[in-house]
Amino acid sequence: MKFTWAILALAACSTNPATAPTKGSGGAGGANATTDAGMSNTGGSGGASVPPVDATDLAAGGGTGGTGDGGDSPRDSADAVTTTGACTGAIACDDFESNTAGAAPAMWTVDIRPAGTGTLQIDTTRAYSGTKSVHITLVANRDHINSFITRPLSALPNNTFYGRMMMWVMATPARNVHWDNIRAQGFFPGTMTDGQYNYGGGPVPGDGGLFANYWTPSADCWKNSKTHMPLAQWNCIEWLYDGAKNEMHYWLNGEELADMAVMQKGDGCIQGAGANNWRAPPFTKLSLGWYNAQTSPIPIDMWMDDVGIDTKRIGCPAAP
Predict the structure, then answer these.
(1) pTM of the model
(2) All domains in the chain, ordered by first residue
(3) Half-sphere exposure of residue 297, counting CA atoms within 13 Å on the CB side?
Protein backbone atom coordinates (compact mmCIF):
# COMPACT_ATOMS: atom_id res chain seq x y z
CA MET A 1 0.00 0.00 0.00
CA LYS A 2 1.42 3.37 -0.99
CA PHE A 3 1.03 6.66 0.79
CA THR A 4 -1.97 8.58 -0.50
CA TRP A 5 -3.02 12.21 -0.06
CA ALA A 6 -6.38 13.38 -1.33
CA ILE A 7 -7.11 17.05 -0.89
CA LEU A 8 -10.79 17.76 -0.57
CA ALA A 9 -12.15 19.72 -3.50
CA LEU A 10 -13.53 22.36 -1.17
CA ALA A 11 -10.16 23.98 -0.57
CA ALA A 12 -6.44 23.55 -0.98
CA CYS A 13 -4.31 22.53 1.99
CA SER A 14 -3.22 25.30 4.31
CA THR A 15 0.35 25.80 5.41
CA ASN A 16 1.36 23.55 8.25
CA PRO A 17 1.44 25.38 11.62
CA ALA A 18 3.19 24.38 14.82
CA THR A 19 1.38 22.53 17.59
CA ALA A 20 1.15 21.85 21.30
CA PRO A 21 0.00 25.21 22.63
CA THR A 22 1.04 25.78 26.20
CA LYS A 23 -1.59 24.88 28.76
CA GLY A 24 -2.49 27.53 31.27
CA SER A 25 -2.04 27.26 35.01
CA GLY A 26 -4.97 27.14 37.36
CA GLY A 27 -6.18 25.71 40.64
CA ALA A 28 -7.28 22.11 40.93
CA GLY A 29 -10.93 21.31 41.35
CA GLY A 30 -13.02 18.28 42.16
CA ALA A 31 -11.83 15.17 43.94
CA ASN A 32 -8.09 14.99 43.30
CA ALA A 33 -8.76 16.03 39.72
CA THR A 34 -5.71 16.73 37.60
CA THR A 35 -5.58 17.56 33.92
CA ASP A 36 -3.55 20.33 32.32
CA ALA A 37 -4.83 23.22 34.38
CA GLY A 38 -2.70 22.66 37.47
CA MET A 39 0.57 22.69 35.55
CA SER A 40 2.92 25.60 34.95
CA ASN A 41 4.61 26.25 31.63
CA THR A 42 8.00 25.07 32.84
CA GLY A 43 9.27 21.56 32.34
CA GLY A 44 10.11 19.04 35.05
CA SER A 45 13.54 18.61 36.53
CA GLY A 46 16.01 20.50 34.36
CA GLY A 47 13.15 21.66 32.13
CA ALA A 48 12.75 24.70 29.95
CA SER A 49 9.67 26.75 29.26
CA VAL A 50 7.27 25.45 26.65
CA PRO A 51 6.77 28.10 23.96
CA PRO A 52 3.22 29.45 23.82
CA VAL A 53 1.17 29.23 20.66
CA ASP A 54 1.48 32.30 18.47
CA ALA A 55 -0.50 33.77 15.61
CA THR A 56 1.31 31.73 12.98
CA ASP A 57 0.68 28.43 14.75
CA LEU A 58 -2.91 27.99 13.65
CA ALA A 59 -4.06 31.04 11.72
CA ALA A 60 -2.94 29.59 8.41
CA GLY A 61 -5.30 26.65 8.75
CA GLY A 62 -8.49 26.73 6.70
CA GLY A 63 -11.94 25.46 7.51
CA THR A 64 -15.05 26.83 9.09
CA GLY A 65 -16.89 25.59 12.12
CA GLY A 66 -20.15 23.79 11.61
CA THR A 67 -23.25 25.20 13.20
CA GLY A 68 -25.63 22.30 12.69
CA ASP A 69 -26.18 18.96 11.10
CA GLY A 70 -28.63 20.05 8.43
CA GLY A 71 -30.41 16.71 8.75
CA ASP A 72 -28.92 13.31 9.41
CA SER A 73 -25.21 13.70 8.72
CA PRO A 74 -23.50 10.76 6.99
CA ARG A 75 -20.57 11.35 9.32
CA ASP A 76 -22.19 10.66 12.67
CA SER A 77 -21.55 7.66 14.89
CA ALA A 78 -24.87 5.99 14.15
CA ASP A 79 -24.18 5.89 10.42
CA ALA A 80 -20.61 4.58 10.73
CA VAL A 81 -21.39 0.87 10.66
CA THR A 82 -19.94 -0.41 7.39
CA THR A 83 -16.14 -0.34 7.25
CA THR A 84 -13.50 -1.94 5.07
CA GLY A 85 -10.25 -1.03 6.79
CA ALA A 86 -8.83 0.27 3.50
CA CYS A 87 -8.01 3.98 3.44
CA THR A 88 -6.54 4.49 -0.03
CA GLY A 89 -8.07 7.64 -1.48
CA ALA A 90 -8.88 9.14 1.89
CA ILE A 91 -7.81 12.60 3.07
CA ALA A 92 -4.62 10.94 4.31
CA CYS A 93 -3.43 7.34 4.20
CA ASP A 94 0.06 6.31 5.25
CA ASP A 95 1.61 2.92 5.99
CA PHE A 96 5.10 4.54 6.05
CA GLU A 97 6.57 1.88 3.75
CA SER A 98 7.90 4.42 1.24
CA ASN A 99 9.97 6.16 3.93
CA THR A 100 13.63 5.66 4.80
CA ALA A 101 14.39 3.94 8.11
CA GLY A 102 15.88 6.38 10.59
CA ALA A 103 14.42 9.43 8.81
CA ALA A 104 11.38 11.54 9.60
CA PRO A 105 8.10 10.50 7.90
CA ALA A 106 8.20 12.36 4.61
CA MET A 107 4.62 13.56 4.33
CA TRP A 108 4.20 14.80 7.91
CA THR A 109 5.69 17.59 9.99
CA VAL A 110 7.56 16.43 13.10
CA ASP A 111 6.90 18.45 16.27
CA ILE A 112 9.00 17.67 19.35
CA ARG A 113 8.69 20.16 22.22
CA PRO A 114 10.81 21.19 24.02
CA ALA A 115 13.71 20.22 21.80
CA GLY A 116 15.66 17.27 23.09
CA THR A 117 12.81 15.71 25.09
CA GLY A 118 11.87 13.08 22.53
CA THR A 119 12.53 11.38 19.21
CA LEU A 120 10.39 10.51 16.19
CA GLN A 121 11.60 8.51 13.19
CA ILE A 122 10.79 5.71 10.79
CA ASP A 123 11.62 2.38 12.41
CA THR A 124 11.89 -1.28 11.41
CA THR A 125 11.78 -2.74 14.93
CA ARG A 126 8.09 -3.51 14.58
CA ALA A 127 5.32 -2.75 12.10
CA TYR A 128 1.69 -3.76 11.83
CA SER A 129 1.80 -4.03 8.06
CA GLY A 130 4.92 -4.23 5.93
CA THR A 131 8.23 -3.58 7.63
CA LYS A 132 8.10 0.07 8.77
CA SER A 133 6.28 2.24 11.30
CA VAL A 134 6.80 5.51 13.20
CA HIS A 135 8.70 5.12 16.47
CA ILE A 136 8.09 7.81 19.11
CA THR A 137 9.87 8.34 22.43
CA LEU A 138 9.65 10.88 25.24
CA VAL A 139 11.92 11.23 28.25
CA ALA A 140 10.77 10.72 31.84
CA ASN A 141 10.52 13.39 34.54
CA ARG A 142 9.45 16.29 32.32
CA ASP A 143 6.04 17.89 31.98
CA HIS A 144 4.37 19.60 29.01
CA ILE A 145 6.34 17.67 26.41
CA ASN A 146 5.22 16.16 23.12
CA SER A 147 6.44 14.16 20.15
CA PHE A 148 3.91 14.45 17.32
CA ILE A 149 3.47 14.02 13.61
CA THR A 150 1.23 16.81 12.37
CA ARG A 151 -0.66 17.87 9.23
CA PRO A 152 -3.15 20.60 8.34
CA LEU A 153 -6.86 19.89 7.99
CA SER A 154 -8.50 21.99 5.31
CA ALA A 155 -12.20 22.87 5.00
CA LEU A 156 -13.58 19.64 6.42
CA PRO A 157 -17.23 19.02 5.47
CA ASN A 158 -19.32 19.92 8.53
CA ASN A 159 -16.04 20.38 10.43
CA THR A 160 -16.03 16.59 10.92
CA PHE A 161 -13.59 13.76 10.28
CA TYR A 162 -12.79 10.15 11.18
CA GLY A 163 -9.35 8.76 11.89
CA ARG A 164 -7.63 5.43 12.38
CA MET A 165 -4.17 4.37 13.47
CA MET A 166 -2.50 1.22 14.71
CA MET A 167 -0.70 1.93 17.98
CA TRP A 168 1.75 -0.01 20.16
CA VAL A 169 2.87 1.40 23.54
CA MET A 170 5.14 -0.39 25.99
CA ALA A 171 3.77 1.30 29.14
CA THR A 172 1.56 4.25 30.08
CA PRO A 173 2.34 6.76 32.86
CA ALA A 174 0.86 6.73 36.35
CA ARG A 175 -2.75 7.69 36.88
CA ASN A 176 -1.98 11.33 37.72
CA VAL A 177 -0.42 12.05 34.31
CA HIS A 178 -2.62 13.38 31.50
CA TRP A 179 -1.44 12.11 28.12
CA ASP A 180 -2.81 12.76 24.62
CA ASN A 181 -2.43 10.73 21.42
CA ILE A 182 -4.96 12.38 19.09
CA ARG A 183 -5.31 16.17 18.95
CA ALA A 184 -7.42 18.28 16.60
CA GLN A 185 -7.30 22.02 17.11
CA GLY A 186 -7.95 25.43 15.63
CA PHE A 187 -8.80 29.04 16.40
CA PHE A 188 -12.39 30.00 17.09
CA PRO A 189 -13.72 32.27 14.30
CA GLY A 190 -12.72 35.91 14.63
CA THR A 191 -10.37 35.23 17.56
CA MET A 192 -6.87 34.04 18.36
CA THR A 193 -8.33 31.65 20.95
CA ASP A 194 -7.21 28.05 20.49
CA GLY A 195 -9.54 25.10 21.10
CA GLN A 196 -8.61 21.42 21.23
CA TYR A 197 -10.32 18.02 21.12
CA ASN A 198 -7.99 15.38 22.61
CA TYR A 199 -8.14 11.64 23.13
CA GLY A 200 -5.61 9.98 25.43
CA GLY A 201 -5.67 8.89 29.04
CA GLY A 202 -4.28 9.00 32.50
CA PRO A 203 -5.56 11.59 34.96
CA VAL A 204 -7.58 11.25 38.15
CA PRO A 205 -10.43 11.32 39.21
CA GLY A 206 -10.26 8.33 36.87
CA ASP A 207 -8.05 5.32 37.52
CA GLY A 208 -5.46 5.90 34.83
CA GLY A 209 -7.62 4.65 31.97
CA LEU A 210 -8.42 6.24 28.65
CA PHE A 211 -10.08 9.64 28.57
CA ALA A 212 -11.29 12.54 26.44
CA ASN A 213 -10.14 16.11 27.00
CA TYR A 214 -11.45 19.49 25.86
CA TRP A 215 -9.10 22.44 26.23
CA THR A 216 -9.28 26.19 25.62
CA PRO A 217 -7.45 28.95 27.52
CA SER A 218 -10.52 29.20 29.80
CA ALA A 219 -11.61 25.54 29.99
CA ASP A 220 -9.91 22.26 30.81
CA CYS A 221 -12.48 19.45 30.83
CA TRP A 222 -12.48 15.66 30.89
CA LYS A 223 -14.49 12.50 30.38
CA ASN A 224 -13.05 9.31 31.86
CA SER A 225 -13.26 5.72 30.66
CA LYS A 226 -12.90 2.54 32.71
CA THR A 227 -10.96 0.97 29.85
CA HIS A 228 -7.16 0.94 29.89
CA MET A 229 -4.91 0.92 26.86
CA PRO A 230 -3.72 -2.66 26.20
CA LEU A 231 0.06 -2.66 26.46
CA ALA A 232 2.81 -4.20 24.33
CA GLN A 233 0.51 -5.15 21.47
CA TRP A 234 -0.89 -3.58 18.33
CA ASN A 235 -4.20 -1.79 18.98
CA CYS A 236 -6.54 -0.37 16.38
CA ILE A 237 -7.53 3.14 17.50
CA GLU A 238 -10.37 4.90 15.67
CA TRP A 239 -12.03 8.20 16.38
CA LEU A 240 -14.68 10.62 15.17
CA TYR A 241 -14.38 14.35 15.86
CA ASP A 242 -17.72 15.89 14.91
CA GLY A 243 -17.42 19.66 15.13
CA ALA A 244 -20.95 20.27 13.85
CA LYS A 245 -22.53 18.34 16.72
CA ASN A 246 -19.75 18.96 19.28
CA GLU A 247 -19.27 15.21 19.65
CA MET A 248 -16.35 12.80 20.05
CA HIS A 249 -16.39 9.00 19.60
CA TYR A 250 -13.63 6.42 20.14
CA TRP A 251 -13.23 2.81 19.03
CA LEU A 252 -10.68 0.35 20.45
CA ASN A 253 -9.98 -2.71 18.34
CA GLY A 254 -13.25 -2.31 16.46
CA GLU A 255 -15.51 -1.72 19.47
CA GLU A 256 -16.84 1.73 20.37
CA LEU A 257 -16.20 2.67 24.00
CA ALA A 258 -19.47 4.18 25.19
CA ASP A 259 -17.83 5.89 28.17
CA MET A 260 -15.43 7.68 25.82
CA ALA A 261 -18.27 9.24 23.81
CA VAL A 262 -18.78 12.97 24.34
CA MET A 263 -22.07 14.59 23.40
CA GLN A 264 -21.59 18.34 23.97
CA LYS A 265 -20.15 17.90 27.49
CA GLY A 266 -18.04 15.57 29.60
CA ASP A 267 -17.73 14.60 33.27
CA GLY A 268 -16.42 17.92 34.54
CA CYS A 269 -13.86 20.68 34.25
CA ILE A 270 -10.82 21.67 36.26
CA GLN A 271 -10.62 25.16 34.84
CA GLY A 272 -13.44 27.56 34.02
CA ALA A 273 -16.70 27.88 35.93
CA GLY A 274 -19.55 26.54 33.82
CA ALA A 275 -17.12 25.66 31.03
CA ASN A 276 -18.33 22.09 30.46
CA ASN A 277 -19.58 22.94 26.97
CA TRP A 278 -17.31 21.24 24.43
CA ARG A 279 -17.82 23.74 21.60
CA ALA A 280 -15.55 22.63 18.79
CA PRO A 281 -13.26 25.09 17.02
CA PRO A 282 -12.84 24.85 13.25
CA PHE A 283 -10.40 21.93 13.03
CA THR A 284 -7.38 23.14 11.07
CA LYS A 285 -4.63 20.92 12.41
CA LEU A 286 -4.17 17.28 13.44
CA SER A 287 -1.41 15.95 15.72
CA LEU A 288 -0.78 12.26 16.40
CA GLY A 289 1.73 10.81 18.83
CA TRP A 290 2.25 11.49 22.53
CA TYR A 291 1.89 14.49 24.84
CA ASN A 292 2.48 14.41 28.60
CA ALA A 293 0.93 17.26 30.56
CA GLN A 294 2.36 16.28 33.92
CA THR A 295 5.72 14.77 34.87
CA SER A 296 5.82 11.08 33.98
CA PRO A 297 8.03 8.79 36.08
CA ILE A 298 8.58 6.56 33.04
CA PRO A 299 9.77 7.29 29.49
CA ILE A 300 7.34 6.79 26.60
CA ASP A 301 8.09 4.20 23.94
CA MET A 302 5.43 3.83 21.24
CA TRP A 303 4.91 2.97 17.58
CA MET A 304 2.26 4.06 15.04
CA ASP A 305 1.34 2.45 11.74
CA ASP A 306 -1.40 2.44 9.08
CA VAL A 307 -2.73 5.95 9.71
CA GLY A 308 -5.85 7.02 7.85
CA ILE A 309 -8.00 10.17 7.89
CA ASP A 310 -11.35 10.29 6.08
CA THR A 311 -14.86 11.78 6.06
CA LYS A 312 -16.27 8.31 6.80
CA ARG A 313 -15.26 5.60 9.21
CA ILE A 314 -12.33 3.58 7.88
CA GLY A 315 -12.31 0.55 10.15
CA CYS A 316 -9.38 -1.57 11.29
CA PRO A 317 -6.89 -2.92 8.74
CA ALA A 318 -6.81 -6.61 7.95
CA ALA A 319 -4.50 -8.74 10.05
CA PRO A 320 -1.06 -8.97 8.42
Answers:
(1) 0.78
(2) 101-320 (2.60.120.200)
(3) 4
